[in-house]
Amino acid sequence: RKEVEQDPGPFNVPEGATVAFNCTYSNSASQSFFWYRQDCRKEPKLLMSVYSSGNEDGRFTAQLNRASQYISLLIRDSKLSDSATYLCVVIVGSTLGRLYFGRGTQLTVWP
Amino acid sequence: GAVVSQHPSRVICKSGTSVKIECRSLDFQATTMFWYRQFPKQSLMLMATSNEGSKATYEQGVEKDKFLINHASLTLSTLTVTSAHPEDSSFYICSATSSGGGRGEQFFGPGTRLTVL
Q1: Does the beta-carbon distance from A101 to B32 stay under 8 Å?
Q2: Which of these, A87, A109, A89, lies nearest to A99 by C-alpha position?
């Protein structure tokens, strides 16, 4: 079983739509959680960390459910520039430890 | 955020040749660097973890004699793909973290696209 599972999509939504991505992780010892964004043929870039209490950064809201081992990302008022692949990332154990990546969820926002 | 560079950004080589990829942290000291490989439409797969001054730790299934990693300083790690074959064609990405990276954030290089003919 993979450490991190994501629905690969693709998600195709119009501008202004709200879209949600989900991710599950298998290791209950997972300590840190992140969403990264990867544009085509580019390196991943940190979008936001995910905290147990849930956190929001502008149009982006991330939530963590430790009991269900489930992470979500909500994007409100989608922009064309949000088109990318969103990677769910988990660190097991030490915060300096290795990252486990989901395969990513592809989002396309159309005008 | 911190900057990590990779060189070259793209390389095309003949089968059987060796290719060296450099990963540099430009404005911080990277105690740990990671090397990933990503095939089209696949997730990043960790190949090895490299700590400055010590031998790299390879993930299961990654041949350490084929993918040579050297982390000679706190700002430079190199990955050498020896006797490259077409199946080694992939996107190779390094990342670096510092001892002060308490959030666990890793900083990624821009990647190297390797094509083996």
Answers
A1: no
A2: A89
Distances (CA, A) of A104 to A54, A81, B4, B28, B51: 21, 17, 22, 29, 27
What is the Cα B94 distance to its own chain's centre?
Answer: 4
Give yes or no for A46 touching B (CB within 8 A).
Answer: yes
How close does chain A come to B23, measured CA to CA in Å? 13
pLDDT tens digits along B42-55:
888 899 988 888 88
For the stretch B16-38, what's the b/e string if a residue is b when 16 or more beta carbons lie within 10 angstroms of its beta carbon?
A: eeebebbbbbeebebbbbbbbbb
Q: Tell me whether residue A74 is exposed, middle or buried, using C-beta atoms within 10 angstroms of its C-beta: 0 to 12, 13 to 18, 19 or more.
A: middle
Check A102 against B111: CB less than 8 A apart: no
Tokens of A47: 């979008």
User: Which of A40-44, B21-25, B79-83 has the weakest average pLDDT?
Assistant: A40-44
B109/A101 Cβ within 8 A: no
> Which tens digit of pLDDT belongs to each residue from B8-50?
999 999 999 999 999 999 988 888 899 999 998 788 889 998 8
pLDDT confidence tier of residue A53, bands split at 50, 70 and 90? confident
Integer Cα distance of B3 and A97 in angstroms? 20
CB contact under 8 A, B97 and A32: no
